[in-house]
Design goal:
binds guanosine-5'-monophosphate; 13 helices; binds adenosine-5'-diphosphate; 49% helix; alpha/beta; four-stranded mixed beta sheet
Length: 291
């Protein structure tokens, strides 16, 4: 018989540490559900992610998840699962789309209703400039403030342009599942705090996120009803000129951002709409139409 090779002591202790971390994460989630700090929809969305949090949540038993809610013990959870046709031993990762929808309906979780628009495009294409114009045209649109580990540029204000966080604070928030999406870009981390976005959407307010490509893909996976917009430069030369013209990065950082830009431009086809930023007011008006 072929037995797997025995694990080394190090591999065993690493596996044990991962097990402990996953159990801690699951008990944190149960407490947050009980206290109303987390919603079923958010847990189900996270369980689809390919990271440690996603994998730990996917392994959680559905009955344990449901019985975390105040007023739903294991008996009610089992009855609910039977009613919507979910096997008693099913794990969260094994839930089908319709089963997940049925649970959300059964729990009466109000679904997000506001329009979520995600704006992505290469660095220097003019996302920030277009978003500022949208703010003028549509003060009712809520524009998410991202957290970042990047240092503020001159004139940028903490809490207005970004939440400027330490790497430690950012990492803790990742572990706690506090981001709707996050990504590493040109040596820094950027993320969208989850709670304010969901709160605005629930109140029916339109929400705009301005984020890079990897983050946009995460939002699309977690919130399939989001409308994804790619902002493109009129030409490559325009993009280069804008990045240099902004004067906020040195040559090495510009080269790094342009290398990324090639990848990002290649992904434009994944988006629901492509807006060319030849003219700021016109591009903003197009974006406003989607909101
Ligand atoms: P991003 O947020 O995508 O990195 P910015 O909004 O900072 O880009 O814009 C980069 C530079 O391009 C800025 O100097 C800005 O003034 C300029 N810019 C933005 N939109 C246009 C446009 N339509 N035409 C010419 N220059 C533009
Ligand atoms: P900058 O350093 O030029 O402000 O931003 C660099 C890149 O990070 C831009 O493409 C910007 O759209 C993106 N970005 C800003 N906030 C977020 C965020 O919350 N999440 C992600 N994924 N990207 C962000």
């Amino acid at each position: 018989m072929n037995l797997p090779p025995p694990l080394t002591a190090e591999a065993r202790s690493a596996a044990a540490a991962r097990g402990v971390a996953a159990r801690q994460l699951r008990s944190g989630v149960r407490l947050a559900l009980r206290d109303g700090d987390l919603r079923l929809a958010e847990v189900l969305a996270d369980a689809g992610r390919d990271d440690d949090r996603g994998r730990a949540l996917a392994r959680m038993k559905v009955v344990d998840l449901l019985s975390s809610f105040r007023g739903i013990g294991p008996v009610r959870a089992a009855a609910l699962m039977e009613r919507v046709g979910i096997a008693a031993n099913r794990r969260v990762g094994g839930l089908g789309h319709h089963q997940a929808e049925a649970l959300l309906d059964a729990l009466g979780e109000d679904r997000p209703t506001g329009r979520l628009v995600v704006l992505t495009g290469p660095s220097g294409v003019g996302k920030g400039t277009v978003v500022t114009q949208v703010r003028r045209m549509r003060p009712d649109v809520w524009i998410s403030i991202s957290a970042t580990t990047r240092a503020p540029r001159s004139g940028e204000v903490d809490g207005v342009d970004y939440l400027f966080w330490s790497r430690e604070h950012f990492a803790r928030t990742v572990e706690q599942g506090g981001f709707l999406e996050w990504a590493e870009f040109a040596g820094n981390r950027y993320g969208t705090p989850r709670r304010p976005v969901l709160a605005r959407l629930r109140e029916g307010q339109p929400v705009l996120l301005e984020i890079e490509l990897q983050g946009a893909r995460q939002v699309r996976a977690a919130m399939p009803r989001a409308f994804m917009v790619f902002l493109a430069p009129p030409s490559w030369a325009d993009l280069e000129a804008r990045l240099h013209g902004r004067g906020t990065e040195d040559d090495a950082a510009i080269a790094q951002r342009l290398a990324k830009a090639r990848e990002e431009l290649a992904a434009a086809g994944e988006f629901d709409a492509v807006v060319v930023n030849d003219d700021v007011v016109r591009a903003a008006a197009e974006l406003v139409d989607f909101l």
